[in-house]
Amino acid sequence: MDYSNSISNRINKITCHFEDGKLEKEYQDFRWNKIRNYVRNLMIISEVFNMLLRIDDIRLLGPNPLYIGFHTLGILFWIFFFFFLSDDNKKKWHQLYFTIWIIGLMNMGSFSYYFIDPLAFPVKGGVLPIIMILWLYVWPYFFLNSMIVTITTTIPFCLLVLEQGSMTLDQIPYLYVIPFIFLSTVKWSKEKNERIDFMKTKKLESNHTLMNNTLQRYFGQTLAEKILKDDGVLAGENSRVTISFTDIESYSTIIEHMSPEIAVKFLNRYFTEMHNVIEEHGGHIVSYIGDSVLVVYGAPKKVEDHELLAVRSAMKMRDRLKEMNKKWDEDEFSRYWKNNGIGEIKARTGLHTGSVIAGNIGSERMLQYSTIGDVVNVASRLEQANKEFDSNILISQEIYTTLTKDLYSLCEFKKEISLKGRETLTKVYSI
């Protein structure tokens, strides 16, 4: 189905309003945000123009009390709306204000001229078709309000000119009816197209929001923003980062008696809490590998002191896991591992810092943001080394040298160990 036709079916054929009241209000709010400055400037210009007309009319007609009273009321009405109503009230009432103002202004003006200066009345009133064009296209009326204003000002004027005899009945269709039908049709089409454009814009924004939310769900906020900014290129670049590798201790034993559904529920709850902590510290989750999570600090968004952020994040993750164990005890979720001799869930983390290549890796048809380099391997090996020292978090010498005093004092040197793939020994510290 054509999208424009689908929108058209939601627009009332008579009023040109959306059938859905909520959608109509949304459109009116949207439109007000676009026209409020225009309305303000238009009111100023129109009042200046009206003041010039008043001065001219008073000069020609004299200080007639009826005419002066009419214009005084119009000025007070203008001042009230322009200065004393809030922007929210103007948004709500500007259509009604313009409708009443123009109807009152035109009808009172017509009757004033008719009774005060009958000879000048047809001349003054002869500009009505021009005024009709102005309020149909210059004044920011909705279609329905335009029709109300046009009909309620034109009919009284036509009755007056017929009564006066300055115009015959057969002249009225040519001067007013035909222009009115033409202008009304054009006005309706114009407003309908504006409403269709609004819905198309709304649809595009909705699609963009959906795409952004989907990208964030699968790639994280930082990477999602960078994908949209760089058109998904994310070419590999050399970056100094800190890599964190975290794994659940005795994971195979923990899920041994869990159904797949329960295992997924368990992991999702665990990863959700860990993700919140990681995001708080500026980390980006590169991948989930079973129960393991690989995190990079310092890419794709560059951050200062990524070493410190990574260490504090790891410590916070450990604290958060302790809190989760208490909740699992309360809802008896812990029976799945306590029945297998595991008192609580623990996690092991390895941290290392250095240079990596960070960017999109893969084929043109399927890419994955990844980090490549020795830093990743070292972090993984350090995570495994926790088994040897019965520790939770192991950091390398490179990270240890960047720590602040408060973290420095919490560290304990373990020893120099040999890591697979590295010729030199690696100094490791627990924290």
What would your notes on this structure say?
It is a single chain. The protein is α+β, with helices and mostly antiparallel strands and 431 residues long. It has 2 domains: 3-212, no CATH class; 220-430, Nucleotide cyclase, GGDEF domain (Alpha-Beta Plaits), CATH 3.30.70. The chain has 16 helices and 8 strands. Strands 1, 2, 3, 4, 5, 6, 7 and 8 form an 8-stranded mixed beta sheet that branches. A hairpin with a 2-residue loop joins strand 2 and strand 3. The longest helix has 48 residues, at 172-219. The two termini are 62 Å apart.
Summary tags:
single chain, 431 residues, alpha+beta, Alpha-Beta Plaits, 8-stranded mixed sheet, 16 helices, 14% strand
Q: What is the level 1 CATH name of the largest domain?
A: Alpha Beta
Secondary structure: number of strands: 8
* CATH fold-level assignment of the largest domain: Alpha-Beta Plaits
Whole-number tally of structural domains: 2
Q: What is the H/E order?
A: HHHHHHHHHEHHEEHHEEHEHHEE
Oligomerization state: single chain
Helicity range of the residues? 55-70%
Enumerate the spans where pLDDT stays under 50 for 5 or more consecutive residues: none
Strand content: 5-15%
Quick recap of the structure?
This protein has helices spanning 3-8, 21-61, 65-84, 87-116, 121-125, 128-137, 143-164, 172-219, 221-229, 251-254, 260-280, 306-330, 335-338, 374-389, 397-400, 405-408; strands spanning 237-248, 283-289, 292-297, 347-362, 367-372, 393-396, 412-417, 426-430. It is α+β, with helices and mostly antiparallel strands and 431 residues long. The protein has 2 domains: 3-212, no CATH class; 220-430, Alpha-Beta Plaits, CATH 3.30.70.
